[in-house]
Amino acid sequence: MKTAASPTSSHESLDDATGTFDALRARLQGIAYRMLSSVAEAEDVVQDAWLRWYGADRAKIDNGEAWLVAVTTRLSIDRLRALKAQREHYAGIWLPEPQAIDAPHTPEQIRERADDISVAFLLLLERLTPEARAAFLLREVFDVDYDEVASTLGKTETACRQLVSRAKIQLRESRPRLSVPREIHLRLLTKFAEALQKGDFAEIHSMIADDATLVGDGGGRVPSFPKPMEGGRRIAQLFYAARLRFKDELRIELAVLNGQWALLRFIEGKLESAQSYETDGERIVRIHVQRNPDKLLRLAAAFGAC
Q: Class of 14-172 per CATH?
């Protein structure tokens, strides 16, 4: 793994320490967000990592990047254990907090692939134990060598290889087998957004698979379904009913969320939901609808719809 320059002098200035941390902030945020599926929790973890970095004797740290990645990962593991307990008592269905993350552009971003931060993928990661999740993400997404993974988790390299191997098998069994090209996904969502905006029920229905599923998260703050809604016609009727009810006060916009094209629905100028879609290239097969206002705050601010 390529590493950033690390502090080596006890007389290192605060500016140097800050510069080192800032150069790695996006990477640390990426690890924490993939671990926790929450922007707010990830930001808290990264802030805690900064405080520990600031208070550390950096002259004794040989590799600043490895140290910060390890600290961020350990903090995320501890935080995830607490969050898992909280989520057992969550009101309704829990979904990850969506984030306005663009598709990869640089070689490093391509390595940390967009499909490894999608809402669907984050949901799959929830099935792993905190340590298995950390081992898998560090190795498979962030390309950390096994010796560093082992050091971070306090395990042997053999144990970490087993964690990653089992996680890959567990996730492979649940991930969609068909990977839809980005441009096809965009074309389908664009057409679907137009149908929603026009309120064309026949078109909406035709674009949703008969066995499609819609999952919604209201967080107990706004109405949502207590279990997944099944069936293309029922889902189409749900979307159509919203158009009939709100008429011109309803607006649909395309946006890139978690590295993939998604839809934002605004009602009376306010962000009402963020919708992530899975397709087979021809029709929509699964929809994740985030309606929890707490999880929409940052998106609303980003899109000027608070």
A: mainly alpha
